[in-house]
Amino acid sequence: MNYSYLPELTPLRGVAAVLVVLFHSQIFIYPLVDGHASLFLAKGWLWVDFFFVLSGFILTHVYGYAFRGGVTRVAYWNYLRARFARVYPLHFFTLLWTIAAGTLVVAGPIAAEWNRGIRFILDIRTAPACLLLVQALHLYPTAPMNTVSWSLSTEWWMYLLFPLLIPLLLGGGRARRLVWLLAVGGLYAAVKYWLVPQFGMHLWQRQPATLNTINDFAFLRCAAGFGLGMLTYRWFQLGLWRTLFQRNLFFWVVTAALVLSFHFDVNELLTVALFPLLILATVYNGGSASRLLSTRPAQRLGEWSFSIYMVHMPIFFSYRGIAPLLGWPVPNGFFTLGPDYRVGWFAACIFLAVTLVAASLCYRWLEVPARNYFNGRRAGSGQAASVAG
User: Fold this and answer.
1) For an engineered disulfide with 153, which of 102, 133, 306, 344 has Cβ 3.0 to 4.6 Å away?
2) Phi, psi at residue 133, to the nearest 5°?
């Protein structure tokens, strides 16, 4: 493959994964921030859309050269094997973990407010769909089992289509890029303003206008993000706006704009529009931002990002199943009355610390060995391929 490693992007995945953990900590454990003060954490589900955009960018960077002239059977299966090696072993492991933890949760006491939803999420009958990565394709009223794997389900089906899309984008000029941008924007708008309000259901309730669909039209949400990421890579490949994006100040301005857009609950489509700017400002940056993102802790966090994302809900379910047996406090998320935010942050820090330890172990002993095994690599090789996560 003819591509260079982009180390600056790796930590972005780690930061996004940590923010998703805090988002779920606020929902499932104890509240962290009063929604009247800030919606920064409450809008944390949007970081999954950042994953989609970043995936489209990175996969185009890694595999665009191989598929630009067309898709051959050998190239397609080599690519698909690499994708399978990257995501499926950890998905399979966390699915088994969730089944075991879920058995304890369902067998124990569950608060009345949680009863219907949590019992459905952990319903063993949904496991075959999760095993086949079809759980987010309009089959269930919410994301079952290891709930975060809904996004993996949608990404897997985008992986299958992705090589066929490469020649359509990389071989075209300005007009084709404009059509691509309009198609991506139209798809985002259709999901939020038409499909979800008209047909979307979550936990048996009609959905408002939102991109936060995880079971009905999640594939289209993912497709829009992938398409935007692919287009962002095409802009990067052409060097558009490089003089502006390489300025160190621009990176921090975009970062601040993203923080404020989450904080003030700016329209989701406008927030998503900032993701390509963040990616381009990162890969072009040669100043303090680049040096910060290149540090060893930042790189490690990025390398663990997929494990962080995939293990944190099984960890929560494990605690939720064991806590009643040991007489430990049982978290109740936003159903907690009179929340003490200090308790919430204390619990979130413990949750995050355990997640980071588990993620580091999963990366070291499961992700890397499985990837090397399926790809036929020797341990320790293929560092550059890790960016394709």
Assistant:
1) 133
2) 60, 45
Q: Return the number of other C-beta atoms located less than 10 Å from residue 376's C-beta.
A: 8
The CA distances from residue 255 to 57, 204, 230, 275, 349, in Å, are 18, 36, 21, 10, 23
Selection from 282, 189, 295 nearest residue 242 by Cα: 282
Sign of the alpha-carbon torsion through 296, 302, 307, 311: positive
C-alpha torsion sign, points 162, 43, 387, 256: positive
Question: Any bridge partners for residue 205, and if so which?
Answer: 202
Written as one letter, the residue type at 314 is P
Residue range 245-301, pLDDT digits in tens: 999 999 999 999 999 999 999 999 999 999 999 999 999 998 889 999 999 999 999
pTM for this entry: 0.94
- How far CA 94 is from CA of 114, 284, 314, in Å, comes to 22, 36, 7
What is the structure's pLDDT at 317? Answer: 94
Residue 170 has a pLDDT of: 85
Alpha helices in 304-364 (DSSP H): 305-326, 341-362
